[in-house]
Automatic annotation (TrEMBL):
Enzyme class: transferase
Protein's cellular compartments: Cell membrane; Secreted
Task of the protein: Could be a virulence factor.
TM ranges: 20-37, 44-66
The protein's name in its UniProt record: Cardiolipin synthase
Assigned EC number: 2.7.8.-
Family annotation (NCBIfam families): bac_cardiolipin
Main location class: membrane
Source superkingdom: Bacteria
One Pfam family per UniProt: PLDc_2
Length: 478
């Protein structure tokens, strides 16, 4: 190393300049070739090529660090087992209303899964309602318990779940737990350590404390799943933490919505967990303890939609686009974060311009101020085209729900942003049920506290508008 440095210092200044220029030329050409072959968005491609030629070394390093889609490249290596194999030819479901047959066919083509009838769905509000039902289900487990959570705190709520899982295992039930490697705490989460001490098999999804594996930070499991005996499932937006017990007045209360499902659709959820556990631990779960025969439990038709930066990439976003396109009278949605990509924005705008009532409810103030700033700079075209955007008063509501034409519902873990649509591993449930649709529409309507207008956006001081527009450029990473 010392010899190389001596030789470098011994060269003339002009020669050193020529060497640096040659390196810069090679880097710029390499970046340009990679961008031309890999980048589909013209604006992004022009930007990266321009930066690489204007600042060859610095621009190339930035592109190597932030511009290469490592998510897709790693996803090709990290293949997960398909959730379920069915006939590749989409078949219309007899349990779907005629007005939604086209949507049903499209979603079956997207997911590879059929809708299944004979399900029951129960909605819970906040951890105050969801946790007692979930803990009671675990207490009644006899054969298996599968739990996956993005956030699993080692607080009073988390410890209650840990003890319930331990007790289920001591009764002879097989127990498996997945915690996200970032959401539950970066350096070996406390709840994960507690579960391991209790002897409960628990895995960390995409966890690495090594700096050179930083691309894994974009691969998060945002799912919230609890499946008991392969027959009863819970999913939605509720994580495991004291903050979700709103009635107990925590320091930062988090309102949310969760759902209990029974019937044949539970197999879809179990298969999703089995695929994740195989990916995390390498163990393949099988047998009737996990996949028992399922009898009808109600009259609801449903289907699971998974999404992630692998073979499932953008499936939830694509289903949402299909649902918006098929809407005939109304689209109602609530989401804690609202930064959809241009395709979704344009679809909502087109729906509003053709006379569809489009209502979007977002928090007045979320738990991420940068998202709030970016949202204000992002919604201008929606307001101009007649989409009604409403804000909900505190405390912060983490619920995600969509209803189309008062019959089709879409609930689960996915937010309306690029991270959920493209980067996170997510799970939503598509439900055809008028009763649930009415309940969700009532819930969404009650959250419409104040309507945002174009005048509100225009009234922001110039420095604030400039700040919001600048933060919006981070949209792919928020």
């Amino acid at each position: 190393m010392e010899e190389l440095l001596t030789r470098w210092l011994g060269t003339t200044a002009s020669l050193r300049t020529e060497i640096v220029a040659a390196i810069g030329l090679v880097l710029s050409l390499g970046v340009s070739v990679h961008v031309l072959l890999r980048k589909r968005v013209v604006g992004a491609a022009i930007g990266w090529i321009g930066l690489a030629w204007l600042a060859p070394v610095f621009g190339s390093l930035l592109y190597i660090t932030f511009g290469i889609n490592r998510v897709e490249r790693r996803a090709r290596r990290l293949k997960r087992r398909p959730s379920q194999q069915i006939d590749d030819t989409p078949q219309p479901s007899a349990h779907v209303p005629d007005a939604f047959r086209a949507l049903d066919r499209a979603v079956q083509s997207i997911t590879g899964l059929p809708t299944v009838a004979g399900n029951a769905v129960t909605m819970y509000r906040n951890g105050d309602e969801a946790y007692p039902a979930m803990l009671a289900a675990i207490a009644g487990a006899r054969r298996s318990v599968a739990l996956s959570s993005y956030i699993f705190r080692d607080d009073a709520t988390g410890r209650a779940f840990c003890e319930a899982l331990r007790a289920a295992q001591e009764r002879g039930a097989e127990v498996r737990v997945i915690l996200d490697g970032i959401g539950s705490g970066y350096f070996f989460p406390a709840a994960w350590r507690r579960l391991r001490r209790l002897g409960v098999p628990a895995g960390l999804f995409m966890h690495s404390a090594l700096p050179w594996r930083m691309p894994f930070l974009n691969l998060r499991s945002h799912k919230k799943l609890l499946i008991v005996d392969g027959r009863t499932a819970f999913t939605g937006g509720v994580n495991i933490s004291d903050g979700n017990r709103v009635a107990e007045r925590p320091a930062f209360p988090i309102r949310d919505t969760h759902f209990r499902l029974e019937g044949p659709v539970v197999e879809h959820l179990t298969q999703a967990f089995i695929a994740d556990w195989l990916f995390v631990d390498g163990e393949e779960l099988d047998g009737e303890a996990w996949l028992p025969p399922l009898a009808p439990a109600g009259d609801v038709t449903a289907r699971v939609v998974t999404s992630g930066p692998d073979a499932d990439i953008e499936k939830i976003a694509t289903v949402i686009l299909q649902a918006i396109t098929c809407a005939r009278s109304s689209i109602r949605l609530a989401t804690p974060y609202f930064l959809p990509n241009d395709l979704v924005v344009n679809a909502l705008c087109l729906a509003a311009t053709r006379g569809i009532e489009v209502d979007v409810v977002i928090p007045c103030k979320s738990d991420h101020r940068f998202v709030d700033w970016a949202t204000r700079a992002h919604i201008d075209p929606l307001l101009r085209n007649g989409v009604r955007i409403w804000t909900d008063d505190p405390p912060f509501d983490h619920s995600k729900a969509m209803v189309v034409d008062g019959q089709w519902c879409f609930v689960g873990s996915a937010n309306w942003d690029s991270r959920s649509f493209r980067l996170n591993f997510e799970l939503n449930v598509e439900v055809y049920d008028i009763r649930l649709a009415r309940a969700l529409e009532t819930f969404i309507s009650a959250k419409r506290q104040r309507r945002l207008t174009q005048a509100d956006l225009d009234a922001r001081p110039f420095p604030m508008r400039l700040r919001d527009a600048a933060v919006r450029l981070l949209l792919p990473y928020l």
